[in-house]
# Entry
Amino acid sequence: MSLFEFISQYWPRLLSGTGITVAQFLLSSVVAIILALIFALMKMSSNRLVKGAAVTYIEIFRGTSLLVQLYWIFFVLPLFGLTLEKFTAGYIAIGMNAGAYGAELVRGGIMSVPRGQWEAALAINMSSAKRMWRIILPQAVGIMLPPWGNLLIEILKGTALVSLISVTDLMFQAKQINASTYLSAQIFGTALIIYYIIARFMFTPFMRWFEGFMARKLGKA
Amino acid sequence: MEDMSAYPLEISGDGTPMVSFQKVRKAYGPLVVLDNLDLEVATGEMVSIIGPSGSGKTTVLRMLMTLEQINAGVIYVDGRPLTHMDKAGVLVEATPKHLRARRSDIGMCFQHFNLFPHMTAIQNCMEGPVHVLGLTKAEARDRSEELLELVGMIEKKDQHPSRLSGGQQQRVAIARALAMRPKVMLFDEVTSALDPEVIGEVTNVIRKLVSEHNLTMLMVTHQMGFARDISDRVCFFYDGKIEEQGRPADLFGNPKRERTQQFLSAVKEAV
Ligand SMILES: Nc1ncnc2c1ncn2[C@@H]1O[C@H](COP(=O)(O)OP(=O)(O)OP(=O)(O)O)[C@@H](O)[C@H]1O
Ligand SMILES: [Mg+2]
# Structure
């Protein structure tokens, strides 16, 4: 069977799988961004308890396997009375994992905003929350966009793991088709290409555009 | 030796000084930067601070802006304690809330301008009035345009700082500080990072403020000619102390202390 025939036969399942993969990617990205922001700010807190909580979180999620974390959230949390639907468990686990890495990126971005910016914001008597939100973060975003681009690509690739808890993403569909047809080269080849197209021709151009947008906002372009 | 730190405030006449450092001490670890500093600035007075590098000039301004905590003593602004709070007659260390309330009397311009790069000139000026003072955007815009006019930057009001020269950025920074309507303005070597040919545009703005507004100003500068021209009083700092102070004509024309003489002649040679 040629690749063309193969795709024309299986495209509905590949398409629905791709849809789920993109949804997992977007949702885990949102979770990761929010958690990264929260834990970065917590880690920079002067309150030891708050800081300690953030450090612990970041250590645990960076220091252990994403797959194990996914299984924990899906199989073990129910034992403690917290049951998540598999689709939800999927993006929550990936988002929490990436959020731990992202927190370091956010913290690095914030710290690389020059001290003079903090001081100028203080000199016009801005509250610490407004200093962070209106002066520091917008500049930090500009600084940390390139590493975030890489992290989000990692998230996209990481979503393939959700197939292991039976979320019907692209990888799950590919495995199912493979099991019934044994057309491994075609199916996994197609899956590779789809992941590559999403990363290279959809996500990367978006990040380019966003970097340009932020550069204009920061008055650099 | 005559005690120079108790220089009388003849200029004010109305009693309480606008700014008063009382026995202020500042140290970074074992390094004592300022010790037992007494300095008073009268309302509407322009005081220049000169002195060798590392003598603590910037630190004086930064303490007043509350960018640095002091280790001992008290700073008063407009008759009320800045670094401390009056609690049933006893001065206790200021809380962040108190600092925020009192800091509004003070504005500062920095050597490296520190404009917000993601905002245009006018947005830089409007930021504080809108988000700190709670003015409406229209009110803040009017106020900012007036001030940008004053500093001669109204034509460039919609430019980002990256599109402005150093002198232009510094003038916007002055407008940004003035937009908060401070009672005291601090200038820390605001011309030191500028090319010689644009220094004049910034000093002219400061001249205008001195002649047309009743602001109290403290200015750290290496431009002796400028300090001599516009100051009511000049303080020569040496090693964390006011070594000598007086009217510009006296301090520059007839310095009494040897260190002042040495410093001034060294500066003259460098020019
Ligand atoms: N954050 C800091 N930590 C440690 N030491 C500091 C700090 N800030 C300033 N100092 C020291 O305090 C002393 C006074 O510094 P300050 O910046 O007030 O000097 P200055 O008179 O403004 O000098 P310059 O003319 O070079 O600007 C210097 O010895 C400086 O090294
Ligand atoms: Mg200095």
Remarks:
- Chain B has nine helices and twelve strands.
- The pocket of adenosine-5'-triphosphate (ligand 1) is lined by residues B 28, 31, 33, 51, 53-59 (CB under 6 Å).
- Chain B touches chain A at residues 65-67, 100, 103-104, 106-108, 110, 112, 114-120, 127-128, 131-132, 160-163, 173, 176-177, 179-180 (CB under 8 Å).
